[in-house]
Amino acid sequence: MTELQFKRHRRLRSSKVMREIVQETHVHKQDLIYPLFVAEGEGIRREVSSMPGVFQLSLDCLNEEVGEISSLGIPAVVLFGIPHEKDELGKGAYHDHGIVQKAITQIKENFPEMLVIADTCLCEFTDHGHCGVIKDGDVQNDSSLLLLAQTAVSQAKAGADIIAPSNMMDGFVAAIRQGLDEAGFSHIPIMSYAVKYSSAFYGPFRDAADSTPQFGDRKTYQMNPANRLEALREAESDLEEGADFLMVKPALAYLDIIREVKDRYNAPMVAYNVSGEYSMIKAAAQNGWLDEKAVVMEKLIAMKRAGADLIITYFAKDVAKWLNEAK
């Protein structure tokens, strides 16, 4: 009988070690950024009901949490604030003694090697839950830019290593870059939420950050999930305005966008593995419907394979533990 001629791809899958040495894509601890929700008050370690394992923390509980994050080898955190009081202009976002500013300073004093990223937005601090100034029921773009730049400068003064504006106002990177430069912070990079979709996956985050809009929605400033070319226009604008990192949010439903933006533009790419993506897996795992570790690692690999250099994920601590155990 004549021997069949065909390629034997299975030769490179024959054992665990063989599979590992030819693996093309890897998740490292250095790729991970862990989100933290910092609340005003004392003695607060309040689990978010829709996000098992994620907590709102007061400053007196923050060092213990950051200490664990640091000990696991996670290099960076991104901070979101939960103030006692809110108002129509979100003044707590840009107050020099706001909750995020206090948290930044505390972390940098106690964990100087930890990279601290400040989410720069107003929605957690406004009584209406929108990301800018409201007039006649609409979010005002240009007047919001002034407050966002002021917020970024106050965060930089507090010691933030990276400013991460998430508001999706037109011109927000240009306004923040100018504000930082004029205040003497030209060395502080901007991690732009360049491609942020108006997504149904944000629900649990709004529980965690107490940032649900009190009227309407965010579709006039966040992107239509159906659009691809718009993402490229947004990313290009942000780079031209001075962004140092580009982010796509959410990650899992937009892997094609991550890949295309990464192929098109030469900038570090950040994927935000958002709250809904986290909560779905947690709920399914708690019901025994899937293998949490296997699913989490598979989806993070997918994000890296799509082109992400960094991943913001609520699974960061779990992933770091799994990677440490693997060693």
TrEMBL record:
<keyword id="KW-0862">Zinc</keyword>
<keyword id="KW-0479">Metal-binding</keyword>
<comment type="pathway">
    <text>Porphyrin-containing compound metabolism; protoporphyrin-IX biosynthesis; coproporphyrinogen-III from 5-aminolevulinate: step 1/4.</text>
</comment>
<dbReference type="InterPro" id="IPR013785">
    <property type="entry name" value="Aldolase_TIM"/>
</dbReference>
<keyword id="KW-0350">Heme biosynthesis</keyword>
<comment type="function">
    <text>Catalyzes an early step in the biosynthesis of tetrapyrroles. Binds two molecules of 5-aminolevulinate per subunit, each at a distinct site, and catalyzes their condensation to form porphobilinogen.</text>
</comment>
<dbReference type="GO" id="GO:0008270">
    <property type="term" value="F:zinc ion binding"/>
</dbReference>
<dbReference type="InterPro" id="IPR030656">
    <property type="entry name" value="ALAD_AS"/>
</dbReference>
<keyword id="KW-0460">Magnesium</keyword>
<feature type="binding site">
    <location>
        <position position="121"/>
    </location>
    <ligand>
        <name>Zn(2+)</name>
    </ligand>
</feature>
<feature type="binding site">
    <location>
        <position position="218"/>
    </location>
    <ligand>
        <name>5-aminolevulinate 1</name>
    </ligand>
</feature>
<comment type="subunit">
    <text>Homooctamer.</text>
</comment>
<feature type="active site" description="Schiff-base intermediate with substrate">
    <location>
        <position position="196"/>
    </location>
</feature>
<comment type="similarity">
    <text>Belongs to the ALAD family.</text>
</comment>
<dbReference type="InterPro" id="IPR001731">
    <property type="entry name" value="ALAD"/>
</dbReference>
<feature type="binding site">
    <location>
        <position position="206"/>
    </location>
    <ligand>
        <name>5-aminolevulinate 1</name>
    </ligand>
</feature>
<feature type="binding site">
    <location>
        <position position="131"/>
    </location>
    <ligand>
        <name>Zn(2+)</name>
    </ligand>
</feature>
<keyword id="KW-0456">Lyase</keyword>
<dbReference type="GO" id="GO:0006782">
    <property type="term" value="P:protoporphyrinogen IX biosynthetic process"/>
</dbReference>
<keyword id="KW-0627">Porphyrin biosynthesis</keyword>
<feature type="active site" description="Schiff-base intermediate with substrate">
    <location>
        <position position="249"/>
    </location>
</feature>
<feature type="binding site">
    <location>
        <position position="234"/>
    </location>
    <ligand>
        <name>Mg(2+)</name>
    </ligand>
</feature>
<feature type="binding site">
    <location>
        <position position="275"/>
    </location>
    <ligand>
        <name>5-aminolevulinate 2</name>
    </ligand>
</feature>
<dbReference type="GO" id="GO:0004655">
    <property type="term" value="F:porphobilinogen synthase activity"/>
</dbReference>
<dbReference type="GO" id="GO:0005829">
    <property type="term" value="C:cytosol"/>
</dbReference>
<feature type="binding site">
    <location>
        <position position="314"/>
    </location>
    <ligand>
        <name>5-aminolevulinate 2</name>
    </ligand>
</feature>
<feature type="binding site">
    <location>
        <position position="123"/>
    </location>
    <ligand>
        <name>Zn(2+)</name>
    </ligand>
</feature>
<protein>
    <recommendedName>
        <fullName>Delta-aminolevulinic acid dehydratase</fullName>
        <ecNumber>4.2.1.24</ecNumber>
    </recommendedName>
</protein>
<dbReference type="Pfam" id="PF00490">
    <property type="entry name" value="ALAD"/>
</dbReference>
